[in-house]
User: Which sequence fits this backbone?
């Protein structure tokens, strides 16, 4: 259906306007201008910030430079989370552009993984896809693919090639018609006010009596606090790719259309803004 | 499932368009222009540095020549 393809394209080409500034305590030889960039929501920070790094390295002495890392209002940003998720989780209700601070020193070992090269991002990305396919098809689809097919998924993401990526990814989104959906839905629910990084459980797209499970059903089962009763004002927003889908949206359709390229539905539950 | 008859699907489509208007389209052009300006100012910095050093070379050559 043409309309569904539009959703896939809009998800893939989502961008976040971002302003990078150098941390005030970094020692520079001259002042560094801020750097502005439209960040792709579906990619990873360390994969798309080569230009940012280059821009700030121009004002730094080589001996003052260690591994680059980023924070937003004091929260170190995990490169292994998709960019769109980081923004939705930490910054959705702040003013645009998204204001990110760039660091070259004091790497926060306890909060962040090191990212020495793009092959580390690739390994992380492929392991997510494999985990998702284990849930959806008991790993059958990803295991039937060849090495070059795996490479095509990664190169599609790295080079922002929608058609190249989806030519392969559509196989990961197929399911037997008689089953009405995947075996389990690959999802992660992130909460801002929690020590747990995220919630992940086994959840099927269809109930045992044949009903289609919705986003609301998932939340009721996994994190009921996120859903407000009719008589109270909304306490939380449930955000995927920067939007709030209706709770009656079928989960199987969401999984097929609003997953990230890593094949997971990354769902942020954030406090609703109080006006 | 017909697109127009699924309010949840129409909602997703409209919300994505609205998101792109606010987050992408509103900033695309100005960020592009800013980056062009940044490139120009980087070029200017390089050129004026070179100009300064050429000037010093020139002065040094003249100051250092006896009998000039």
Assistant:
């Amino acid at each position: 259906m043409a309309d569904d393809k539009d959703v896939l394209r809009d998800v893939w080409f989502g961008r976040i306007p971002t302003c990078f500034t150098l941390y005030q305590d970094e020692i520079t030889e001259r002042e560094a201008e801020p750097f502005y960039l439209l960040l792709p929501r579906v990619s990873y920070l360390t994969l798309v910030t080569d230009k940012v790094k280059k821009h700030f390295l121009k004002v730094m002495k080589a001996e003052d430079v260690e591994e680059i890392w980023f924070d937003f209002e004091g929260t170190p940003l995990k490169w292994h989370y998709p960019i769109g998720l980081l923004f939705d989780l930490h910054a959705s209700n702040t003013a645009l552009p998204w204001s990110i601070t760039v660091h070259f020193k004091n790497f926060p070992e306890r909060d962040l993984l090191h990212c020495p090269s793009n092959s580390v991002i690739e390994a992380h990305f492929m392991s997510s896809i494999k985990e998702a396919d284990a849930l959806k098809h008991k790993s059958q689809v990803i295991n039937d693919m060849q090495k070059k097919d795996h490479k095509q998924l990664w190169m599609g993401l790295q080079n922002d090639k929608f058609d190249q990526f989806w030519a392969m990814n559509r196989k990961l989104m197929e399911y037997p018609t008689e089953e009405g959906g995947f075996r389990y839905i690959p999802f992660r629910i992130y909460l801002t006010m929690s020590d747990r990084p995220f919630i992940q459980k086994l959840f099927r797209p269809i109930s045992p009596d044949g009903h289609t499970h919705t986003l609301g059903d998932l939340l009721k089962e996994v994190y009921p606090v996120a859903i407000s009763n009719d008589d109270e004002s909304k306490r939380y927003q449930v955000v995927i790719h920067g939007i709030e889908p209706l709770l009656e949206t079928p989960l199987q359709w969401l999984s097929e259309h609003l997953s990230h390229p890593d094949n997971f539905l990354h769902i942020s539950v954030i406090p609703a803004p109080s006006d | 499932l017909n697109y127009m008859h699924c309010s949840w699907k129409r909602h997703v489509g409209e919300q994505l368009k609205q998101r792109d208007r606010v987050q992408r389209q509103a900033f695309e052009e100005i960020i592009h222009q800013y980056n062009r300006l940044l490139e120009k100012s980087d070029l200017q910095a390089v050129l004026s540095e070179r100009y300064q050093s050429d000037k010093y070379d020139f002065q040094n050559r003249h100051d250092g020549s006896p009998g000039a």
